[in-house]
Design goal:
- The structure is a single chain.
- This protein is α+β, with helices and mostly antiparallel strands.
- The protein has helices spanning about 25-30, 35-45, 95-105, 150-160, 165-170, 170-175, 230, 245-255; strands at about 5, 10-25, 55-65, 70-75, 115, 130, 135-140, 145-150, 180-185, 190, 195, 205-210, 215-220, 265, 275-280, 285-290.
- The strands form three sheets. A seven-stranded mixed β-sheet has the order 1-2-3-4-5-8-9. Strands 10-11-12-13-14-15-16 form a seven-stranded mixed β-sheet.
- The radius of gyration is 18 Å and the shape is globular.
Length: about 290
């Protein structure tokens, strides 16, 4: 299992917080039939993507991308000390797994220049902040935090109706600290990092593409949760705000990158998590790398 990848002039590190069972496949993917699950069970088990009880195994991780100019963290995972009562494995966590992973990869919190969030769900913003003397402060003190404008606006609106805890403890404190860059989709960082709109999972969900002049690597966020969705792009998880739009976005993303050399770094596929998109007799595959 490789935690370090290279693509062009990029070095990419995976910082894993949890790799564990999540939800039964038939629960997460309402469009999945027991028959289709049975057909795919053998290769999924072999890939470590599902357990003996048909529960999907997902990875919860951040990526750190070193470009020639910047050190960029993508999606800050789950976080510690945060009340997440609906997810016992995430609720009021106090372990040092994430920080140990950061250190093992050779980074300190002060090394991160930018934090980029594909979207603002609970398991993608958690380490944006940490608890210090009863207050939420930015975990990465030097970093600018990049949030897509349409995503930020959507959650601002939702939070005004009913408080959204991850927004309150992991996003707003960043804004209040003056560390946020709320950007439109034409935003880039240097000549290496760009935004690719990928709406559906949330209205403002984005992927990030990296590489000088071409997409050497792409970080797909929650465009896909399991390799099953590369085979059947029409399968959208129950968490998608717009499942039909998500399916359309996923199909066009897979078409865009299939049979290219672009390294696709997924948020949740179990290790090794990254691969090359290839066309197959059933939809597409993500051929594992690393």
């Amino acid at each position: 299992m490789s935690l370090k990848l290279t693509a062009g002039d990029l070095t990419i590190h995976r910082i894993i917080e949890q790799e564990t069972t999540f939800l039964p496949a038939l629960d997460l993917l309402p469009g999945l039939t027991p028959e289709r699950l049975a057909e795919n069970r053998p290769w999924m088990k072999k890939a470590g993507a599902i357990d003996d009880n048909d529960v999907l195994i997902l990875c919860f991780q951040s990526y750190i991308v070193k470009t020639p100019h910047h050190t960029i963290l993508i999606d800050s995972c789950i976080g510690n000390d945060k009340p997440r009562p609906l997810r016992p494995k995430w609720n009021m966590k106090t372990d040092d797994t994430y920080m140990r992973g950061l250190k093992a990869a050779g980074f300190s919190v002060g090394d991160i220049d930018f934090v980029m969030c594909t979207h603002l769900h609970v398991d993608h913003v958690g380490w944006n902040t940490r608890l210090e003397n009863g207050r939420w402060v930015p975990t990465f003190p030097k970093a600018r935090y990049v949030f897509a404008r349409s995503e930020f606006d959507y959650w601002t609106e939702q939070n005004a109706k009913t408080p959204v805890p991850p927004f309150g403890d992991s996003v707003l404190p960043i804004v209040e600290a003056g560390k946020a860059e709320i950007v439109t989709n034409d935003h880039g960082i240097g000549d290496h990092a760009r935004i690719l709109p990928t709406p559906g999972h949330t209205p403002g969900h984005v992927a990030f593409t990296f590489g000088k002049a071409k997409d050497v690597a792409v970080f797909s966020g929650d465009l896909m949760h399991t390799r099953l969705q590369t085979h059947y792009p029409e399968l959208s998880p129950k968490f998608d705000v717009d499942p039909a739009q998500a399916a359309t976005t996923r199909k066009s993303f897979l078409e865009r990158y299939c049979d290219t050399d672009t390294l696709c770094c997924t948020a949740h596929f179990p290790s090794p998590s990254a691969g090359k998109i290839r066309r197959s007799d059933v939809g597409f595959t993500c051929e594992a790398v690393g």
